[in-house]
Amino acid sequence: MQIPISEIKFDRNGLVPAIVQDAGNHEVLMMAYMNEESLRLTLEKGETYFWSRSRNALWHKGETSGNLQQVLEVLVDCDADTLLIQVHPAGPACHTGNQTCFYRSIKEVNP
Fold this sequence. Notes:
The chain contains 1 helix and 6 strands; from the N terminus they run ββαββββ. By secondary structure, the protein is mostly beta strands.
């Protein structure tokens, strides 16, 4: 089922969380934010674009590193307030060089 961008529930800052997943092995690669412009660019160009909150600027993932993410599908959750972007990554997703940004765990977990 497809929905228009106008139905996406961007927050008061005009952003929506975007979870990026490797379409091949289903590993969660990263989480970033998108505004309407970055979502439209992602859909039009077939590569991921995000909104950098720290730089207050549009960000094309992999533009400088070469680690582009080819978009296969953009899914929307049931509340239309979170995106799941399935990609074929051209390299590591994390700026640290790790394949995924989720490579650490919190030690203090009580069963």
